[in-house]
Design goal:
Layout (H helix, E strand, L loop, with lengths): L8 E2 L3 E6 L2 E11 L3 E5 L11 E10 L2 E14 L3 E6 L4 H12 L7
Antiparallel strand pairs: 1-3, 2-3, 2-5, 3-4, 4-7, 5-6, 6-7
């Protein structure tokens, strides 16, 4: 049963993951919405349901990249990644997520 309150947009972006004092690169988004994200993680990264993480997105095009930090909670864990719900939602987070959702990675890059 679908329980999302917003639609998801397919977006393939690199994401850095911060969890329990550990910084992980090599994660990628599969889809993003204003309520959450599906994050693909490297095989050596373990995520646990209900854990709190922070995501760092770098969005933009050649020379104009904006860094966004968004807090999230892991709600579902799969073989290749996890579904996360954004938390501590304020105006700044909302603006960051709007920019991330609007962004489409240039296939040529």
């Amino acid at each position: 049963m679908e329980r999302r309150w917003t639609t998801r947009t397919r977006v393939n972006l690199p994401v850095e993951l911060l969890q329990a004092g550990t910084h992980t690169e090599g994660c990628r988004t599969r889809d993003v919405g204003l309520g959450g994200i599906y994050l693909e993680v490297p095989p050596n990264v373990k995520l646990f349901a209900e854990s709190h993480v922070e995501l760092i997105f770098r969005v933009g095009e050649r020379g104009e990249v904006t860094k966004h930090r968004v807090k999230a909670r892991v709600v579902r864990v799969g073989d290749a990644g996890a579904g996360l719900m954004f938390r501590d939602f304020d105006a700044s987070t909302f603006r960051s997520l709007q920019e991330i959702v609007r962004f489409r990675e240039d296939p040529a890059s």
